[in-house]
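Table S2 (continued). Query chain:
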Amino acid sequence: MVLKANTDHWNRERGPRLETVVFRNDLDPAEALRLVCDTEGEVDIVTEVSPADAGRVRDSQHARLVTTDAMRLVVGVINRDHAPFDDVRARRALNLAVDGDKFVKEGFGGYAYSTTGLTPHYAAGRAPDLEPYPYDPGQARRLLQESGYPAGRPLILAALPGMDGLADLLAGDLRSALGVEVAVVVIPEDDLLAAQHSFVEKVLPAPFDVLLFAWFDLTSDAPAAFMHSWFYGAMGAFRAGPPIPEFDQILDRYVRQTNGAELNALDEQMDRLAHTQALSLFLCAPQALYAVNKHVSFVGHATTFEVAETEVSEGHWSRRQA
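Corresponding output:
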């Protein structure tokens, strides 16, 4: 896809700063990364760089690594239909059983932030006094036992395709801290669509205790409008368990609110409820990573990929050729 600049656009202050932008969708990620790191003239920006490849970009002669605090989440969806996870003590036990610092370091190379709820610390509407659940294996095991977790029952940890490494990392913490067997089930790519339909439409009981899930938000101004409502609302596609009346009461006020400050106060209430009731296994907010040609000035956005502010210096290959 080729985009040509609209030089007659009214917003001259914002741009355009580029004459032509070419989106190449015919390259696999490895080839795109090679082209931006090892060559010039083929690829200037690669999106969705894996943390495992961050070092290669940092060491590149031609590219630099750009990190953006993005509205993205990795979270464990807790199935509250499965006893004893209808008990807040069991859900808190899950959160206390995970070493968040290790999960961020080993799972994301440090390019992520531990979360207290569904709202990253850099977004509006986050409760400022909340802290991530601490890593406390002793307390986690006590709470799970108090909730009546059956002896010998394996915990079923499901994961989306491509998240098997993170699932294994998470399972290791849960086994060690809780003293239970953890069965990891990675959904095959061919079965993903059917599994999504079953989960979203609630046509069959969810077969997992915890689902390792990656999701994103469409706004950083009012995060609960998209994120919390999908995970906890009565109509939420990703809700696993019965409706939560207290949450839906807040959400009913939320959808009628037009004042930004009041909206964020309700954002905070929803995130506080999610945290105190441990409605999910709160893990981290990964950063968005980009490999960018060193002669390209690129601004990352929290929710979208945009090139309106992007420009190239005199040393860029296109200007040298010209």
